[in-house]
Amino acid sequence: MKILKKLGVKKLSTKELVLMSLLTAMNIVFVRLLSFQTLTQRISFGFITNALAGMMLGPVWAGVMGVVSDVLGMMLFSKGMVYFPLFGISEFLYGFVYGLFLYGRKPTFLKVILCVVIQAAVISMFLTTLWTYLYCMLFTETVKGFGVIFISRIIPALVNIPIHTAIVYFAAKYIPASFLPDVHFEKRKV
Predict the structure, then answer these.
(1) Which residues are 42's β-sheet partners?
(2) Tell me, what's the pLDDT at 147?
């Protein structure tokens, strides 16, 4: 039970549920409408909503928010593509990792950069590349090899690491104290 509480698994208050809904809607707008996308790569600001959900709601609820926004975003704005549920695993993990590193803890630059590097190396470079490869094999006429997709994702991942780190760090530093959870440390003064 202590592990679940530490991971942020608790009954959501009305305020937290509304916050999760707002972040879900923002994520859909950032990822589906305000992004640049090719078959193998998407550049968007959806990571901001995942980070905020992780900081404010905890790892599990941030992961749930990622999956819900992925499903709803695909239902509303599929752009002719087929929904592939394995991408939901990556979306869950993005929010989960942010929550694991930033929920109920003072945000330090080291924690933020470690979080972003883990996401880039494990989730983006490996899992999302694997899901993209499987998606291409199953649903498109252009089957690209895993290595080709992996190589095409290296430069964007390396470019995104400092950008994501800076934005998430400053968002974590300047988030209003009233949105932070009451665990592990005192709230910052507003």
Answers:
(1) 37
(2) 84
Report the share of the chain in percent with pLDDT over 70. 87
Contact partners, residue 141, CB within 8 Å, separation at least 6? none
DSSP annotation of 81 reads P
Q: How many Cα atoms occupy the beta-carbon half-sphere of 79 within 13 Å?
A: 9
Residue 146 has pLDDT above 50, yes or no: yes
pLDDT digits (tens, 9 = 90+) for 48-95: 999 999 998 989 999 999 999 999 999 998 877 788 899 999 999 999
Helix residue ranges, H only, 58-183 = 59-76, 86-102, 109-118, 129-139, 146-174
Would you call 169 exposed, middle or buried from its count of C-beta atoms within 10 A (0-12, 13-18, 19+)?
Answer: buried
For residue 167, CA distances in Å to 113, 130, 145, 176 come to 11, 27, 33, 16
Buried b (16+ CB within 10 A) or exposed e, 104-141: eeebeeebbbebbeebbeebbbebbbbbbbebbeeeee
pLDDT > 70? residue 175? yes
Quick check: 46 and 91 in contact, CB under 8 A?
Answer: no
